[in-house]
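Example 420, ligand guanosine-5'-triphosphate.
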Amino acid sequence: MQQEETKTASPCAILVAVDCGEGVYDAEASLDELHELLQSAGYEPGPSVMQRRESPDKATCIGSGRLEEIRQLCSTQEADVVVFDRELSPTQLRNLERELKIRVIDRTMLILEIFASRAQSSEGKLQVELAQLQYMLPRLSGQGTALSRIGGGSGTHTRGAGETQLETDRRHIRRRIESLKQKLAESNKRRQNLRHRRKKNNIPTVALVGYTNAGKSTLMNALTQAGVLAEDKLFATLDPTARSLRLPSGRHVVLIDTVGLVRNLPHHLVEAFHSTLEEAAQADLILNLCDASSPEASVHLSVTKDLLESLNCGETPILPVLNKCDLLTDPSHLPHVGKFVCISARYGTGIEGLLDAIDQSLPQIHRRMKLLIPFEKAGLAARIRRNGSILEEQYLPEGLLVRAMVDQQLLEDVRPFVVD
Ligand SMILES: Nc1nc2c(ncn2[C@@H]2O[C@H](COP(=O)(O)OP(=O)(O)OP(=O)(O)O)[C@@H](O)[C@H]2O)c(=O)[nH]1
Ligand SMILES: [Mg+2]
């Protein structure tokens, strides 16, 4: 008996790119990325359609000929969704869904969807929900489909006198947006307090920034496995994406993981993640991690750098870290980025070099302190002098009383001898 053909479990998507010749837009590369984004969102990418035109059609983004082609494709491919590789205006989205009688999403909605499924920390979840609601608010069609997709649920809210369902939904969303903003402001405050505490304790922060899939989390884990991750005695409450790390010099730093980037990151998302990304931009050192085996590595590095610059990273040194070097067959394919470190986070190659580079790239900070050093620890005074300076010294029966500028690297060692 012939087996009945079953449709694959993942929804099938038709990809659409409209190339209007904008300077930096590379339709092919962007479509490839859309392909990957679809896969990571759990879709099955189907055929793609590309159109070059002077400007996007105001009503439907693409021309009527291509629209017909997509309609055909949808039916032959039994597609479930059509994905546009650019942002669609509320009008375009509405018209396209009406014309194609199928779910239509744009690149931004897709990215937001991925973020929503990935967000782990409660703050991350709030940030993504805020971005989604802000994006959807003007795009509500009144049919309730958009809302139900992002978990808002439509038709369940009490309608005010004379209100249409659409108005009710909008009112509900606006209220939720306000409440999300408030919650985020609170957690932002908590984060600021943490940051101040670290500053006071002189603990430098190192931010791990980079394109999605560059290997940031793998690197975080590699550092843990290398045994260099100190248990966080110093900071009782680190947020889930920050960890304490001890460098070979003995200096402690806080390593911050950040949200993965993609080109044309939806601006709503950047806005929602502003405080997190800004924290990264304000770190003492930024590691710009990229997948060195990707032919797009240079683009990825510059997308990240541009974003950081838009966040006023100012004087913060940025160290490019080329990851996945185990996959590199031809080293001449490395992106040209000046000083950089090559590693393989997966195999732990180059991790020591990276830690040394972090040590060297961090600004050397000296701290003024008063210490009572027992005579048997006289060697410590010599080390302080070598890496910093002793401003005043006095011999007491208990030991040497000094006022000194102590190098960051020695902070741990001198801690037991600090006097107020
Ligand atoms: N071959 C190889 N694969 C690696 C290396 N580092 C990471 N990967 C793989 O790359 C993929 C992505 O790694 P992640 O650590 O999740 O990347 P990420 O930067 O945290 O990604 P996002 O969380 O999406 O921003 C995983 O499948 C890793 O196993 C490496 O050095 N070599
Ligand atoms: Mg990650």
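Summary: The two ends are 88 Å apart (CA to CA).
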